[in-house]
Amino acid sequence: MTSIGTGYDLSNSVFSPDGRNFQVEYAAKAVENGGTAIGLRCQDGVVLAVEKLVMSKLLVESSNRRISTVDRHIGIAFSGLIPDGRAFVNRARDQAAQWRRNFQSPMPISSIADDMGGLAQAYTLYSSVRPFGITAIIGGVDEDGKPGLYMIEPSGLYWGYYGAATGKGRQAAKAEIEKLDLANITIREAVKHAARIIHSAHEDSKDKEFQIEMTWVGKEETGGRHQVVPKELQEEAERLAKKALEGEDDDEDEEKEKMEE
């Protein structure tokens, strides 16, 4: 991806001769260095979860949130540059509030994904700005109870997903998500899967302490409101996740011993 000496990476309003926008690629690289974030769309709602690395023991646990409520029924999780994520969330909140003023109803998940995807794309057009250094996962439940999940990349590209992953451990997380039958599991079950997936994706950074930030929204479980997963349920999910990983480690050790024999 190197472009040293070409000059085509000095502005995001210029394409290279082979049609690349290096500023967008650099923004995507910033996302790859961030903690893993996932979203799971289930039969009755959406679960968002983020691997939050502990940068300092002096930090207040709740002061560095990477999942935010945009409207009562919508949440956004992101990976990448935290200040960019906060600015992105604030713009999303403005869009949701404006929709409520204009139409006297909550904003559909697809509409806010479309608006924020357009905003991200606009930030790739002008030399006076730079692309957002985040990938955002937007999840929520519409008025009819139908869940929606979208992932928006720095280029402005977005798709609807049953399961989405971004950040440093996205490949490992994606592999685990693909094993799930998301259309037939509840969000309560998805919370346990999400904790296991985040722990599994963190395996490459075992030497670093981390916390899991997790929220959910469902018509039945939360009354259609985006909320933090109850502490008791999250603690149980993390306990089961650690137990599952320890079991996998034991199986790997047994296989190695058999091979040595």
Query: Percent of residues in beta strands?
Result: 15-25%
CATH superfamily: Aminohydrolase, N-terminal nucleophile (Ntn) domain
Average pLDDT over all residues: 90
Distance between the termini: 45 Å
Main sheet attributes: strand count, strand direction, barrel closure: 5 strands, antiparallel
Helix-strand sequence: HEEEEHHEEEEHHEEH
What count of domains describes the coordinates?
1
Contiguous low-pLDDT stretches (5 residues minimum) are none
Under the CATH scheme, which class? Alpha Beta
SS element count, helices: 6
Count of strand segments:
10
CATH architecture: 4-Layer Sandwich
Question: What do we call the CATH topology?
Answer: Glutamine Phosphoribosylpyrophosphate, subunit 1, domain 1
Radius of gyration: 19 Å
Structural class comes to alpha+beta
Structural shape: globular
Helix content: 25-40%
Biggest sheet, strands in spatial order?
8-1-2-9-10
Pfam families: Proteasome, Proteasome_A_N
Domain Proteasome alpha-type subunits: 8-30
Keywords: Cytoplasm, Nucleus, Proteasome
Subunit structure: The 26S proteasome consists of a 20S proteasome core and two 19S regulatory subunits.
What structural keywords apply?
globular, five-stranded antiparallel sheet, single chain, alpha+beta, Glutamine Phosphoribosylpyrophosphate, subunit 1, domain 1, 261 residues, 6 helices
